[in-house]
Amino acid sequence: QVTLVESGGGLVQAGGSLRLSCIASGPTFSSYRMDWFRQAPGKEREFVARISASGSTTTYTNFVKGRFTISRDNAKNTVYLQMNSLKPEDTAVYYCAARTRPVGPIDYWGQGTQVTVSS
Questions:
Q1: Distance between CA 28 and CA 77 in Å, rounded?
Q2: CA distances to 10, 11, 67, 86, 116 from 119, in Å
Q3: End-to-end CA gap in the chain
Q4: What is the pLDDT of residues 27-47, one digit of tens each?
Q5: What pLDDT does residue 117 have?
Q6: Are strands 46-51 and 58-60 parallel, antiparallel or unpaired?
Q7: Each residue of 52-86: pLDDT tens digit?
Q8: 25, 29, 86, 117: which sits with the fewest CB atoms below 10 Å from its CB?
């Protein structure tokens, strides 16, 4: 069983920045592929970013490219999402997710952290 706990959300003005953190339990975090998703009110959950187990490969959805950066510290069992130049449309609950197998779907989700961007 893996537990994911997000933090770092809050209220920020448009143009501001936030850094989200997600701490994972378990001794094999360094083997997990990690994702960030978000869900705005009335919308489906959508993919934001992904990072490989080693941290060498990252993937972003188009609407955050150049503004968000995903990173990880395997020594701290933590994945981060640095969010810059925030826009009101970035308002959502942000979730981290873990894929514990080399190939396969998401196995675990965090509880989410609210990000609200005011105009």
A1: 9
A2: 14, 11, 17, 10, 10
A3: 40
A4: 899 999 999 999 999 999 999
A5: 98
A6: antiparallel
A7: 999 999 999 999 999 999 999 999 999 999 999 99
A8: 25
| Cα 88 from chain centre | 18
Written as six digits, the tokens of 107 are 């196995």
Q: How far apart are CA 117 and CA 29, in angstroms?
A: 31
Q: What are the beta bridge partners of residue 10?
A: 115
**DSSP label of 27:** T
Tokens 């970013």 correspond to: 49
Q: Is 76 left (phi over 0), alpha (psi -120 to 50) or beta?
A: alpha
- What are 45's two structure tokens? 């959950």
Of 99, 5, 2, nearest to 53 (Cα)?
99
* 37: Cα within 13 Å, side-chain hemisphere: 16
Count of all residues that appear for the chain in the document: 119
In 3D, which of 30, 54, 55, 47 has the Cα closest to residue 109? 47
Tokens, residue 58: 């990252």
